[in-house]
Amino acid sequence: MIELGLTRIQTLLQKTPQTWKAIHVAGTNGKGSICAYLTAMLRANNISCGRFTSPHLIDRWDCISINDNPVLEAKFRHFENLVKTRNDQLQAGATEFELLAATAFEIFEAEQVEVGVIEVGLGGRLDATNVLKNKAVTVISKIGLDHQAMLGNTLEEIALQKAGIMRAGVPCVVDASNPQNVLDVFESHSKQTGASLIHASPESSEFARSFPSAFEPHQIQNLTAAYEAFKLAYPQYAQSADILMPAIVNMKWRGRLQTLDITPLVKQPREVLLDGAHNSQSAKVLADYVNKRYRVGHPPRPVTWVLAASDGKDFAEVSRHLIRPGDAVAVVEFGPVDGMPWVKAMKTDALLKTMHLEESSAQHNGHQDTLGSIKWAVETAAGGPLVIAGSLYLVSDVLRLLRDEETQSGQT
């Protein structure tokens, strides 16, 4: 279950030092990418760093990395057991996410990293990661409507929860492309808190003007925010564009506009676009990308989709952005999420009903058969564009299927 609050994790970490400094990243969309860009910049300058993001993509421990490498399973389980034992002894009653965050902090301390790049799990003010003691800089990315039941029903209410990561004397970088009402919330809270506010805008960033033209607008925005945060944390390295740029260009962030070769799964040469877009804002970004890169020609080429969604998401808005007349759609239910039992997939019947597809549209109810749905989509697409999206948990299932298939093929 999700239960916000800091008391339980404070109990877990009361005797755990935090000798490393932290870059704390909140927001609705883009915060994971900002964490990845920051890690690339830090590693390009040989700064030892840990990264904690959520959710995991394939294995529970891959959400924790040291110097951009996922922590080894044995090390993860050692510190996880240490934290769980402490939780039992202190009767802290920590949630699964709080146990995971505490495990990450223990690993960072044991590895003696210089800096930890920490993504907020949910919200900010009452998120378990907000127990960070040594924040060097905070970052707030794009704000959108998501998790309204826990964070509020308006952008202003959600923004205030995200702004809760600000600290007195600690600079906060905010995505300047947010609506003015959101920026006003940040401005007001920064004054109350005593945190200086920096607006990250590509238009006013000399560094942003050096980004390759292949980058999408939202990527440039996230990169600008990451660079402003890096510049504040390590001003002595901020001007080294010749060092930073190759690291940024070569950075890989799975599940975000990722071109994936699924040949081993479908036994024929085939690539797909894999993206975890799961709310209206991220779906709009994905749709813009697909429309520009894949719907080429006159008339525009139709797209075949494999889609899933978490229960409770506004899938009507997601599908409204993505699907056009003539597209083909397969819907599936992703499997159980390790360590996150509260996450449930939306039923495929509900997905189909929500989308209001035209009767002439090719559609497939895959229920819980992700592989079968992908194979249907490959045949239906007949060489045309194929996109898998709607949930990072579906992304996880696809990556896991591919890894398992490659492992089995390697053993035969």
UniProtKB/TrEMBL annotation:
Catalytically driven reaction(s)? 7,8-dihydropteroate + L-glutamate + ATP = 7,8-dihydrofolate + ADP + phosphate + H(+)
The family database entries (SUPFAM superfamilies) matched by this protein are listed as: MurD-like peptide ligases, catalytic domain, MurD-like peptide ligases, peptide-binding domain
What PROSITE patterns does the database record attribute to this sequence? FOLYLPOLYGLU_SYNT_2
- UniProt entry keywords in alphabetical sequence: ATP-binding, Ligase, Magnesium, Metal-binding, Nucleotide-binding, One-carbon metabolism
Tell me the domain of life.
Answer: Eukaryota
Q: What is its EC number?
A: 6.3.2.12
This protein's pathway: Cofactor biosynthesis; tetrahydrofolylpolyglutamate biosynthesis
InterPro entries for this protein: Folylpolyglutamate_synth, Folylpolyglutamate_synth_CS, Mur-like_cat_sf, Mur_ligase_C_dom_sf
Gene3D superfamilies cross-referenced by the UniProt entry: Mur ligase, C-terminal domain, Mur-like, catalytic domain
Q: Which family does it belong to?
A: Belongs to the folylpolyglutamate synthase family.
Q: Write down the PANTHER family for this protein, in alphabetical order.
A: DIHYDROFOLATE SYNTHETASE-RELATED, FOLYLPOLYGLUTAMATE SYNTHASE-RELATED
- In Swiss-Prot or TrEMBL terms, this protein is called Dihydrofolate synthetase
